[in-house]
């Protein structure tokens, strides 16, 4: 959870997915077909002043990042008054800085930036703001609040906290329960925040002990390899918290190959494959904790409102908030149908 989100406005899932900021469906089906979220309220859907939004994100080399791009595109297409200038995503900070500078030179009305590296992109965010172009900073936060008008993103600490609390409630009556953790990239601050949230939740359950942790790389291959190592090292445990549903695909392969069914698994992010497995209830995967890529759709809503000088429908303030932290809901078999439309491939 970014430090600035402590002063942010915390939205529950209902407020984000069906309230002032509409979540968008990640489906690639034609717009003529009714999507599952189309009946949710929209922040002032009436056509207004034309707005050109520049969108710059990292390379879509991961299911969640690809869903970010798709959410931004499909959301912009809903508005006849929005033109989206989208860059080719890059994980090279110098390349992404150049792409944002090109958008600044084009004099777009608003910028939405998901930086490959928030600290490295801070200066170009400042450049845009000083040029009179408001910036919506998406998820990975800039080092200075002067570099953006609004930040919107997920709650990494809350993601770990909710995963830990869910596991804790499942194991609260089991003496000497053991859990393990399959984390993401350890050099990322978000990974540390997810682990911290998880560890803090487990403090509420003195009967549970975390006995092992491995860091993977957010890929199917790394998830399978690291999970195989964990399974070999731990002959018995009761629950697994996996930070990422992409690497969870590999983790589930390793679990199936080992023939293990003696524990429950909680995933992270909200991939469609994970939700499908939860609904089928035929594997160890019993829940996933959301890190919704629909935040990109909400970022387009916010950018449009900024470009038109409006606030957010459903809120009393004349201006959009400075910060919005999305809620990390726990998806289980009981509520999976509600969240399936937001699942990403």
UniProtKB/TrEMBL annotation:
Keyword Signal found: yes
Region annotation Disordered: residue ranges?
Answer: 29-48
User: InterPro entries from the xrefs?
Assistant: Peripla_BP_I, SBP_2_dom, TAT_signal
For this protein, the record's PROSITE patterns field holds: PROKAR_LIPOPROTEIN (PS51257), TAT (PS51318)
Q: Which residues form the Periplasmic binding protein domain?
A: 53-310
> Major place of localization?
other
Name the SUPFAM superfamilies for this protein: Periplasmic binding protein-like I
Name its cellular compartments. Answer: Cell envelope
Which controlled-vocabulary keywords does the entry list? Signal
Q: Which Pfam families match?
A: Peripla_BP_4 (PF13407)
Is Signal found in the keyword set?
Answer: yes
Family from the record: Belongs to the bacterial solute-binding protein 2 family.
State what protein this is by name.
Substrate-binding domain-containing protein
Give the source species. Streptomyces peucetius
